Amino acid sequence: MASPESPLPGVEKTQCATIKINYMLFIKNPLIRFLSFAFNKYFDLYTGGKKRPVFYDIDQTCNKLRILEKNFNLIKSEVEGLLNSTNKFRPYHEIDTLQHKISAVENPERSWKVFMLYMMGEFSSEAVRACPQTCLLLKRIPGIYQCFFSILDPQKNIPAHNGSYRGYLRYHLGLKVPTKNPPYIRIKDQYYTWTESGSVLFDDSWNHQVTNQCNSERVILVVDIYRPLPPLPAKVNYLLTKHLIKKFYAEKILENINNNK
Predict the structure, then answer these.
(1) What distance separates the 2 farthest-apart alpha carbons in the chain?
(2) Are 99 and 106 in contact, with CB atoms under 8 Å apart?
(3) Which of 14, 52, 143, 157 could join 47 via S-S bond, C-beta 3.0 to 4.6 A?
């Protein structure tokens, strides 16, 4: 007899979990990576390919992001409320299995945790409740792809990796950053050190890694925006994320978040 909690008749709950993990590892995740690789080749006809920039000028690329810096204290206040709550942040790889290698493998006794705010057209219900003002600010920024708070435990490093999809650029706003021996990120052959209220916009599809030797938490706001592209590839990028990547990737993550409040 199937477990009463099993979604498949005749299949025990533990077997369902194994089936789900195997599906993610051997079918879904490789499919997402293959699609990203194929479309990255197409986007590179317009990005500059191997000559594309590492860092981007915020004012020239998306000046509405400055709204976040101007409201730094408000955003920091809301994230501090989250930090004072229990179980609001979860290890990145528990929310998104694609991040297991970079979140769970290196110094696993330390955590890289996130609080997801927005993914491809939809705010998480928990974000709207816990961070209403931050969500309202994000709604004023056009072309948002994904947003989340990112927290690194003291001395938690992030190993070298490449963002898998070339369709977006990544913005960081430092919210809580140690002043003594602050963590820094290497992107390709360039470096950036986080500061509180400091911001940066970069292409995270370049190889990058985080070195963190500080003795307190590092908290930032991560905002991914659609990469500026000519009209046709921009339309392809939008349709791909809204209808394919959202269906096979973002919706499941949001469901995971909303079901584990």
Answers:
(1) 62
(2) no
(3) 52
Mean pLDDT of 4-24: 47
Helix axes 29-47, 231-239, angle to 10 degrees: 170
SS3 content of the chain, % helix, strand, coil (to 5): 45, 25, 30
Give strand pairing partners of 91.
Answer: 113
Helix (H, G, I), strand (E, B) or coil at 138: helix
Could you tell me how far CA 42 lies from the centroid of its own chain?
23
Q: Which helix (H) or strand (E) holds 92?
A: helix 92-95
Above 60 in pLDDT, residue 99? Answer: yes
CB-count burial class (<10 Å; 0-12, 13-18, 19+) for 143: middle
Q: Is 213 helix (H, G, I), strand (E, B) or coil?
A: coil
Which residues partner with 49 through β-bridges? none
Rounded-to-integer distance, Cα 194 and Cα 233, Å: 32
pTM, two decimal places = 0.86
Helix (H) or strand (E) holding 159: strand 158-162
Q: Which is more confident, 73 or 22?
A: 73
Distances (CA, A) of 136 to 35, 74, 75, 86, 168: 32, 11, 11, 24, 21
Phi, psi of 144 (to 5 degrees): -80, 135
Q: Are strands 90-91 and 207-211 parallel, antiparallel or unpaired?
A: unpaired
How far, in Å, CA of 119 to CA of 139, rounded?
Answer: 12
H-only helix segments in 96-139:
100-104, 125-130, 132-138
Cα–Cα dist 79/23, whole Å: 34
Judged against a pLDDT cut of 70, whether residue 97 lies above it is answered with yes
Amino acid symbol at 245 = I
User: Do 59 and 69 touch, CB atoms closer than 8 A?
Assistant: no
